[in-house]
Amino acid sequence: MSRHGDNHLDGILLVDKPADWTSFDVVNFVRRRFSLDKTGHCGTLDPFATGLLVILLGKATRLQDSLMAQNKIYTGTIRLGEETASGDLTSEVTAQHEVPAFSLEELQAAADTFLGDIQQVPPMHSAIKVNGQPLYKLARKGREVERPARPVHIDRFALSNLRLPEVDFEVHCSKGTYIRTLGVDLGAKLGCGAHLSALRRVASGDHRVENAVTLEQLKTWELPELAEHVEKFKV
């Protein structure tokens, strides 16, 4: 939650996060731009990812736990044949493999094995804490520690637009799902490795990115314009 500012608004603001901004950067920008007294958000997006960030203002911050628990929808691109330290395009390639001439049907059959309740090992490049230390800080030091698998649920893992070595995807999943890990695990199942070259969150619960505002819009608004775009909430 933020420090106290001069202005108060209660409600939900949907923002389309651009690449290279952290989720905290976006929340901090909104808080400072409009001098708001209380802000929070419902689920972190990786800096390289784009899409829906649900920002809570004022009394709506009490909804954080319930909104974070809602299912999410993501789209993106998996690049086969290359493994990276982080599972995405932001870190160095650690291994390269030849990519067989997979058909979309073969790839989809592999993706379908991840549907339902699965156990997922969180990536080292994540904010999960072990003994009070975020995993990503240990990863930056070249350290890897054991991470217990966590249960997640995958409702849909649909592949499309195959253009080897890349293929697009859409995932419908429970909270706590690491889409980077899903891409990496698919690459491991296929035997050729993989990482994410793009990721976008398009929905969280009933909220969709089509209804979100951009940072460029926010930069031109004053408090009255912001208030017009804040969704009221029910507790």
Features:
alpha+beta; 7 helices; two-stranded antiparallel ribbon; 13 strands; Pseudouridine synthase; elongated; 9-stranded mixed β-sheet; 235 residues; 2 domains
Folded structure, characterized:
The chain is of the alpha+beta class. It folds into two domains: 11-69 and 206-228, Pseudouridine synthase; 72-204, Pseudouridine synthase. 23% of the residues lie in helices and 33% in strands. It has seven helices and 13 strands. Strands 1, 2, 3, 4, 7, 10, 11, 12 and 13 form a nine-stranded mixed sheet that branches. A hairpin with a 2-residue loop joins β10 (150-163) and β11. It is elongated.
How would you concisely characterize the structure shown here?
The chain has 235 residues and is of the alpha+beta class. It folds into two domains: 11-69 and 206-228, Pseudouridine synthase, CATH 3.30.2350; 72-204, Pseudouridine synthase (2-Layer Sandwich), CATH 3.30.2350.
What is the correct CATH architecture of the largest domain? Answer: 2-Layer Sandwich
CATH superfamily of the largest domain: Pseudouridine synthase
User: What number of structural domains do the residues give?
Assistant: 2
- In DSSP terms (H or I, runs of 4 or more residues), the helix count works out at 7
Chart the SSEs and their pairings.
Blueprint: E1 11-17, H1 23-33, E2 39-41, E3 50-57, H2 64-68, E4 72-80, E5 82-84, E6 93-96, H3 104-112, E7 116-120, E8 129-130, E9 133-134, H4 135-140, E10 150-163, E11 166-173, H5 179-190, E12 194-204, E13 207-208, H6 215-220, H7 223-228
Parallel strand pairs: 3-12
Antiparallel strand pairs: 1-3, 2-3, 4-11, 4-12, 5-6, 7-10, 8-9, 10-11, 12-13
